[in-house]
Amino acid sequence: MDYDVLIVGAGFAGCEAAYALAMKGRRVGLVTTSLDSVFLPFTPIQAPFPQGSLLAEVGEDGLKGWALHSRAKYKLENHSRIHLLQLSVTRLQLEGQAAVGIETWEGPRKTAATVVLAVGSFLGPKLYLGSMAEEAGRLSEVAYPDLYQHLRQLGFAFTTQQAEVAERDGTPGYRVEYRVFAEAEWDSASFRLHRLEGLYGLGLCVLGQGTYARMAEEGLRLAVAMD
Predict the structure, then answer these.
(1) Full-model pTM
(2) Mean local confidence (pLDDT), 176-181
(3) Per residue in 127-156, is it b (16+ CB within 10 Å) or e — as a string?
(4) Which of 12, 72, 135, 159 lies 20 to 30 Å from 32, alpha-carbon distance?
């Protein structure tokens, strides 16, 4: 196996889980479609921060996006047990009824004993900006269309959520609709996605809604659940 844990998605939930698991000695592959969006908030982060979190290490009350992103990315990239990967995940690698890794649009395949999907609002999304509509989970950030279709083919059920992002600092406001795993697909205590062994769901793609602090808390909780 390449890693003990592969985490798909480097938002707040995925990064917190990766950092906490690495601190516990796990070898973690943290996969994102863009290294420029690692731990990147669209609104200022407000204290209090979850105790023991990466957010608590790098954050300050009211700290804006790019400053927080750069601090967190530095921490993640310099941890000896975390490997940050910029890849577009298209499918899970399967052995029977177990998830054992990922396949990517770029070609590389990575394997792990455990796969965590922390893909936020990027499963089957539609972003609406004025009269424009595009397949994106956030402004200018690509989705996971192939992974979403693959998960549907495996039988996973989804529900629809939506969120509004207000205009801020010259960035236009927009609305996004996205898919989250149906409640019956996921166990909130263990984070397990029931249809496959070794597959977990984390953050917005299972919860549907939540603050940055809540996503950080969920990442920490996953690391505890995997002990």
Answers:
(1) 0.94
(2) 94
(3) beeeeeeeebbbeebebbeebbebbeebeb
(4) 159
